[in-house]
């Protein structure tokens, strides 16, 4: 299996850094190919701007969607963006690992998606019937993705009724709105809580939990998000009345 | 009223840029003081690293929370961070305006929160009784915040049962997990949909909607998020069984 491991932590000698080392080692030991995007080590630029798009941006006004699509088509995207797209094309599975900052990704990682997931590549792809290929379909369909998180919050506080919100709800923009949007099958996340207070015993347990999840990377059931074009949504892309009737909220988009 | 307007769009000649101009003009016309953080124009650096923290980071290993708290206390945070904290301290209300990218903030804006909302300033503040002041209490309590969004998605798709998820659910990490966490009262967001396809008539309507929201900035009811320390959550910060009984999900954190 070809695995791309994306890591976004400023300190390699952190809990996150140790888990990344464990994870990459585990995969290689069983014969997987691993490539890494260690965003801090790469000094990844997370800011979308006209410099990303070569001559496609030489109009008087930058419209990010259409300009990025043109640059993607003509091969004029920045070299750093093309290199990440090439890694994605190569990968069968992607690990997205980060410390939870303000209940989301560190900016350097958000900007990896902003810059790499351009129009024509990860969104805005048409199906033969004219509908847009997204949410379970698209350029990255067939690939798997898993979020690996370290979080300062105690586990109960990101549980179903915890004050911070349930972790899958907090990750919905990433897991559903980005990874599933682009077609990837998203496995349940692995969250290691109490990040700056982990004891030696807790570290052993966290590393074993990670190894176990990696062993079953190709076989675990993904989160059963609904497909956009599978019949559950109407022509306005609203969930049909008879499905999860009377309900709203993030939960209705999961089978 | 003192208003800080944070703007995160790479193109000032965009729908978002025009609305920003309208909004700032509206506020000044009625006598408000406005300061701006135009993040692209400022070339804001969104990446947290050891350079943010002066001598506080001169240990062998960067622990972001505690290091940022030390640098905040000793006044050693980077000058760009301190300048934004000073604007926040000055403001009675904050407008957070951005184009919705991958159902969240552009990286340059996420990194404004990552770098400016440091420990000791926006989180990790203790109350006299030893509980942590957050979710409705904290350094920024008494201030108001409002998100102003432009989004490519059609309105129905970010409605209650739309395929992308309801906009307030998508914004939960920002509105609840960041702004309310730090104590700010969060007004309902203003979302302008179909961003790259807005007609002249639709622009007039969008600008008027924005002006109306700004006229009532100091009087509108905020989103009634629950207070962490108001009695609704138990000592593990889990919502008490008798409130929203049997339910989970983002909605249970709103009265």
Automatic annotation (TrEMBL), chains A, B:
A molecular function (GO) term: NAD(P)H dehydrogenase (quinone) activity
Family annotation (Pfam families): Flavodoxin_2
Keywords, alphabetical: Oxidoreductase
GO cellular component terms attached to this protein's record: cytosol
SUPFAM superfamilies: Flavoproteins
Cited InterPro entries: Flavodoxin_fold, Flavoprotein-like_sf, NAD(P)H_dehydrogenase_qn
UniProt domain Flavodoxin-like fold: residue ranges: 1-213
Family: Belongs to the NAD(P)H dehydrogenase (quinone) family.
Protein name per UniProt: Flavodoxin family protein
Lineage: Bacteria, Bacillati, Actinomycetota, Actinomycetes, Pseudonocardiales
